[in-house]
User: Fold this.
Amino acid sequence: MSQLINGKQISQQIRDELKEEVRRLKEEGKNACLAVVQVGNDPASTVYVNNKKKACAYIGIESRSYELPEDIKEDELVALVEDLNADAAVNGILVQLPLPAHINEDRIIRTISPDKDVDGFHPVSVGRLWIGEKGFLSCTPAGIIQLLKRSGIEIEGKECVVVGRSNIVGKPMAALLLRENGTVTVAHSRTADLKAVTKRADILIVAIGKKRFITSEYIKEGAVVIDVGMHRDENNHLCGDVDFDDVKPHTSAITPVPGGVGPMTIAMLMDNCVETMRTQEERS
Ligand code: NAP
Assistant:
């Protein structure tokens, strides 16, 4: 029987733990405020931003909204981020991506102070992750580690294969699995014989952005399969990068889409926000 990894339940558990921790930290006089910056009014971004603000309200931290016009100049956005960096009342800064094409996303990410980089995208945060220093973790991969741990799945010593090498999922995922003492392989679009590589995996993490690409032919019997993909199928239903119905019978555990990895990203963003309060605790 394959275990269904319940991201909805686990993310709720994490939010409740954070809510309790925030209550305790507030009693000690600590506070957190997340600045959420959205450029333009892309409907998908608005949904994400609203969910992040709701999650802040749930765990008891303040969020401040900055809604900027689609045609804002890059320098104006840089100036806002610099102001937020300098504002002692703001602990975390989140700029919702993607940004409009005329704005250089990398420049904006690099402008955010690494001490307020709750998305974990700044090169300093990425460097800290790879050398094993404390810092903000990229939220989706950090959520996957929590899914595995809280489902009782051991990572140490396991063959872990990550399919995809994006900066927001694949690469930080590989770093985190390595930190947990997994033996890690990263596959990508130039990998020769992808099936041979994925069939070695005890834990297979798929983040390629292709609807139901991974079928049972890619799976070792009894593997754990984590599906990061998020798509709408021909019937407008959500589905992942993994062909769930075909793959599930061959796994020991698997994440569904929706209700697997998806809900974990915001939970781990909240964890990064609370981390800014924990650090205040250490400093005081
Ligand atoms: P991405 O930036 O498009 O990267 C896709 C990666 O997959 C690339 O490294 C690419 O290789 C590799 N790839 C593409 N086709 C392949 C193939 N046929 N065989 C092997 N590798 C292949 O995507 P992403 O941002 O990492 O996102 C991946 C998926 O996760 C998307 O569906 C996205 O919507 C979803 N996502 C979900 C969450 C969540 O919270 N649930 C968060 C982030 C992303 P190359 O590098 O060689 O091009």
User: Anything to note?
Assistant: DSSP finds ten helices and eleven strands in the chain. The chain has a mean pLDDT of 97. The first strand starts at residue 3 and ends at 4.
